[in-house]
Amino acid sequence: MTHFNPWHDVERGDNAPNVVNGIIEIPKGSKGKYELDKASGLLKLDRVLFSAVHYPAAYGFIPQTYCDDKDPLDILVICSVDVVPMCIIEAKVIGVMQMIDQNEEDDKIIAVAANDISVNHFNDIADLPPHTLREMRRFFEDYKALENKQVSVERFMGREDAYRIIGDSIKLYNETFPLGGATPPVKPRPAGVEL
Fold it and tell me: Where Mg(2+) 2 is bound, by residue (predicted)?
């Protein structure tokens, strides 16, 4: 029986690191923290957030990446519509939020939905309304505080730094998983292609 795992078996994108495939675990506005169960490839409810905050953007990971925290690289995708969990979304990378979570580096790539005309004109994090970044910072610092966990958002950086971080996570993935997933990677169909 062939086992499919979104982390290993979906391509990261032909134009990575500029445009990547993001696999969404948590829709914008959710209070549920869903995450990929690495062993089964299914989505599991990790917990319901303790605080009165909710995710400020669609949240997930970039497939075929790996970080020092033993997880794939996180991504926040700004989109004008709600994106359902386990949806693959082409994401144009515009920056990165550098966080320290429990004394570990925990970078979050910031991107816009490449096929959403209302946001895809943003090319760099500096183009975003200042409130958007304040909301992201506040969310990540607040939601962990009520869990008695120490988190600080160190800084926001532009797309060139994000490209470097993605490149590093691809290199670490290739070194850690030299054979990749158990099955050949699935290449998502371009937008607008019917079955």
Answer: 74
Q: What is the pTM of this model?
A: 0.89
**Structural domains in the chain?**
6-175 (3.90.80.10)
Residue 68 in contact with residue 100, Cβ under 8 Å?
Answer: no
Q: Please state, in angstroms and as integers, the Cα–Cα distance from residue 2 to each residue in 36, 79, 182, following that order.
A: 18, 33, 8
Sign of CA dihedral 88, 193, 82, 31: negative
Per the annotation, binding residues for Mg(2+) are: 69, 74, 106
- Which tokens sit at 173? 């993935």
pLDDT tens track for 35-72: 999 888 999 999 898 777 889 999 999 999 999 888 99
- Peptide bond just before 17 cis, omega within 30 deg: yes
Instruction: Give Cβ neighbours of residue 178 (< 8 Å, ≥ 6 apart).
Output: none
SS3 149: coil
Containing H/E element for 98? strand 88-101
Classify 67 as helix, strand or coil: coil
How many angstroms separate the most distant Cα atoms in the chain?
49
